[in-house]
Amino acid sequence: MSTNININVHHVTRVEGHGNIVVNAKDGKIEKCQWQVPEAPRFFEAMVRGRSYQDIQTIVSRICGICSITHSLASTKAVEDALGIEVSEQADKLRILMHYSEQLQSHSLHVGYLVAPDLFNAPSVVPLVAKAPDAVKAIIRVHRVANNWSDLIAGRTTHPVTLIPGGLCKIPTEQQLRDLKKELESSVNVLVAVCEVVQSAAGNLPQFERQTEYISLKQTNPPTYTFYHGDITSNDCNGDGPVNIRNWQKVANEYVSPQSTAKWTQWHRDSYMVGALARFNNNAELLSPLGKKVADMFGLKKGNTNPFMNNVAQLVEMAHVVETSIQMIDDLLTRGLKSETVKVSPRAGRGSGCVEAPRGILFHTYEFDKYGNCVYGNICIPTNQNHANIQKDFEKFVPEFMHLGQDALRHGMEMLVRAYDPCISCSTHFLNVEFV
Amino acid sequence: MCDCCSEQKDIYLPEMATITKRRMLNGTELFMHLEMDSGKELEHAPGQFVELSIAGLGEAPISISSSPTQKGIELVVRNVGSLTRAIHKLEVGQKIGVRGPFGSLYPIEQAKGKDLVFICGGIGLVPQRSFIRYVLDNRKDYGKVTVLVGTKCYDMRLFREELALWSERRDMTLMETIDEAHDCWNGNVGVVTTLIPKVESDLPKSVVLVCGPPVMYKFVLMALAEAEVPADSIYVNLERRMKCGVGKCGHCQINGLYVCQDGPVFRWSDLALVPEAI
Amino acid sequence: MSVSKLSKEQFGQFVDAMLAADRKVIGVVAKDDRFQFDELQSASALRLDYDVTILPPKKYVLPQIEPLLQFEVGGGAQSVMNYEPMILLGVHPYDLVAIRQMDELFSQGEYDKHYMDRRKQITIIACDIARPSKNIFASSMETAVVSDGYDILITDIGDAYLLDVATEKGHALMSYAKALAPAAAADIEKRQAIQEANRTGLNKHKLACKPSYLPKLMEKAYNHPVWLEKARLCFSCGSCNQVCPTCYCFDVQDQVNWDLKTGQRVRCWDGCLLENFATVAGDHNFRKDRASRFRHRLYRKAKYVPEKIGGQIACVGCGRCITACVADIANPVTIYNRLMEEQNLG
Amino acid sequence: MTKPRVAIFDFACCEGCQLQIVNLEEEILDLINVVDVVEWREAMSEQSHEYDIALIEGSITRPEDEKRIEIIRSRCKILIALGSCATIGGINKLKNKFDLEEVKHCVYGKDAHMPHLETGMTKAVHEVVNVDYKIHGCPIDRKEFASVIRALLVGKKPVIPDYPVCVECKARENICRYEYNEICLGPIIRAGCGARCPSNGFRCFGCRGYVDNPNVEAAREVMDKYGLTVEDLRQKMVLFGCGQGPTV
Known about the structure:
- The complex is a heterotetramer.
- Chain A is α+β, with helices and mostly antiparallel strands.
- Chain A contains 14 helices and 14 strands.
- In chain A, strands 6, 7, 8 and 11 form a 4-stranded mixed beta sheet that branches.
- Helix content of chain B is 17%, strand content 29%.
- Chain B has 2 domains: 9-102, Beta Barrel (Elongation Factor Tu (Ef-tu), domain 3); 116-271, Nucleotide-binding domain of ferredoxin-NADP reductase (FNR) module (Rossmann fold), CATH 3.40.50.80.
- Chain B is an alpha/beta fold.
- Chain C is of the alpha+beta class.
- Chain C folds into 2 domains: 2-61 and 82-201, no CATH class; 211-341, no CATH class.
- Chain C is built from 13 helices and 12 strands.
- In chain C, a hairpin with a 3-residue loop joins strand 8 and strand 9.
- Chains in contact: A-D, B-C, B-D, C-D.
């Protein structure tokens, strides 16, 4: 088998944004092995300056169409932190419900439309329509439920409009929540069916392990498998964690890599991983019963170090958010929905907001002048935090799988990139792989 | 509300017609002859229009160019949008939807015994032709017939063969002009108003029928006023955006008048106090 | 037919009985701190004490989007006419006048079977105004009280409703009412007092002339500077058209299904204030200036439509356009009064 | 009849408009019944240089992007700009208000000079190549997208509204944001979205761009009436409105 490898994937497909893979090896010796991010930079942190605190969410939501709800939540929390705004319990619950809808939206999109073709050896979901129509329809159904859910609570599936500093400018009616609950209950079986389909092909996920640091939110009061509240933690935290989200820069330690228009990050090691697998590894014991059941289906256990299992962790979370949301809707209905008005006055201050995007932990920080106009913005997105880890994975993956030949290696590397559910449009755009 | 009307037909439902002839008159104007699939005649009067439609592409008001004295109807469709582009692609034997006829008529009765002067600008010849042919088919009912035809440029001229025949007829006078000189053209050059002084009929006693693009009316009407043609012997044929064709949708309204019902043919004296008309 | 009486509780039972019998009832319900006509789920949601609804009930008489035909692309078509019976509950007198005008407009000349067939399926339970809205001027337009045109007219006399059943259609609904008692003379007097008060009292903007004078007023006003002055701030947003109970202009469009073989021809609300309302093929716009479109609406209300329907003014004084206009230029009374003033001066 | 070949490309954007195509859900099966999607990097691995219709998402921000869009234009018969970034430059144009060197420095600090961080003025697609149709919005409305595509497939000019959002907002019986003394750009912004934001209690912030003839002067003059200032209006108009026409 040839040990000369020349992989140059310019713009990996079936990912959000642009990324390249470049591998070059001669006589079994690796000369170059790179994950590159050539996305056109968009400069959000510069653009928010001078804008009113009311408009920050509208602007930064546009960082990413896939996790726009997450960006909206993180930025709104940051604005509220800066302006000292309290949010009611009802609004807090509705926001979490809104956030869960995006987890389901994004995970079902990723696992169903972007990853599944790899597992079933198809170039896209289109040929699968003929091959496995029921499975495709099941995933569409789950995706539709998630989108209707976002529509209801966020006002739109993408770029939410109901989220304002202090609360929500529109809340669903109790009848709408009851209808949503029914829809979620009826989609549990569909979701399990989707898991079974993926399980049938899970053997196609490469066996690959690499020890790394896993970073996510952790909420102890009450203990929750959290996406929204809590502090920053990692499996490497000993005396130095958890870290308050206002100090996120101490965790991310951003730097510019020549391979990337997006900034890279590191904490205790030279790279870390964020996302579903990181959350799972830090919080698995807090999953809902159905979430645990799905993890068991795949034999996924806390402390897993196979990045490909991030896809499975996403399925686990899909089950978790659906089941947890049904419970939350019951709580909301028991208390009864009240219409709330929020009054906000601008003041000078700096604040941070942190939530878990579907693809990992996300940080926003803003500073405002006394008129409520933004003077500083800093955003650190999950995919950027994963770039270095992808690079490190590549460096271990290539020697281990080089013997399979160039095509299989390239395919495996593309799958590895996809497993991270990268959202390069967030940073700017994704990955161009160039092997020189 | 009475119930006696419940058997009424749906005014928005087109009837199907078949294209029996088609040819291009110039680069953009398609001439078509249609026969209704019901086998019946539309029984229109000169001046009226139909709503022509291709299901899926929409509907447009189109003047009828033929005289009711002949079988079927003739239409001219200019290629200006996606519907008319699709109509241009239809071939003989294919179907098209027709609603109508709608609108007011030329003064067939009132003009009897009088001299007629038709002033046609560009595509304005199309509806005028309906009345011209009707008059020629009922020649003895009318006095002198003069037809003035102005076209922007040589290549745009419509009904060339027919105009050639008209020019040879002794029972009518045809005068033609084009706005822009052309190598193949020996006739008049200039806008259609330049022909008005050449009309031999006693203009103040004639019935004058005007149809052309929106910009033309102002100048023609000024010229006719100068020639002392009374406003109640001038008829204009107007174009507006029409959706329903039946006086409901409001699009074609000019002040208080509905072009689709009160028009398209108006007596100019009725429009004198209607500022939006011209 | 006669005037009967139902206690408020019995009236609620009457409404619930109609709903229980699967009758489709459109009633007035709260929308935040405003009101709207919507399909009623239970009598408890009904708000007959409303001031005015955001949109008039025309949305049920002439829906915003309505299929006219179903077709095969490039082929034949069939009429779509499947109209279910409906009860419009709580229509104020001014809105009733507007619906009656529309009935006339859609049946005169070419008979609009789509409109009329639907309309015939609708039973109107009108309701005397219990609370004036902030911009109502129905008294000025002589539309604050009606004596006919409804199937049933109800009046809130405090502890009970009086029901004036005027038609067979109305009478048929009374089978859902229990404990119906004839109204006593004192009740009738109460009703008269309410109606008399409404006749003159619903007048937040006072028109300086009789409405019947408006067509004449407009004859001399065409080139008045007021059109340009007001229209300078006009967004051409058509809000005044949308909320107007007497505006009925529509557009017709073809929609194609995903099979690309079938589709429907629909009509949808349009508005003469919108920039391209009068644009024809070839992009010539016959009413290009904001001022000419602005003027057209007021002429339509005060002159053009009245000429078509025997003199009735096509403005019923609901005041919705005044509320809806962001630029605050839509108030017809302000404009008519200004014309009156200057006419008197001159 | 062979199915028209459709390719979807993205430039500087959030990819939310492509997502709306996916969000057609079951209808996407209808879509692929009537067109051949031959290239769509976000959703499939296949690629092609031969296509009839190109859907372009995103703004043009770099010289290499200008070249790429010119090549796409030369290969397609119909080019459709998809979403605000493509139709009006979208939120990306906020950048044009700043000095570009300063912007790079603000985000990347001492590394701002690195060649892969090069950026130019943000342009809408029609500022670089000829655009046949625009599907507006941030993100696009999937129903509108579907109806535009269907219209084009039967050879009909799609109906893209040229009237303000107020038309649809009134139709949905929303209470006007101005009645709450809030700025809403609805009166000058192109409809077609079904007034989604005001229907959810949020002001229109103008993602679909101006109507052809916006009365910006009126927008300025009504501020006073609602206790607002022209500066407030300017703050809102700049978000999606940079450089697309008259301003205050």
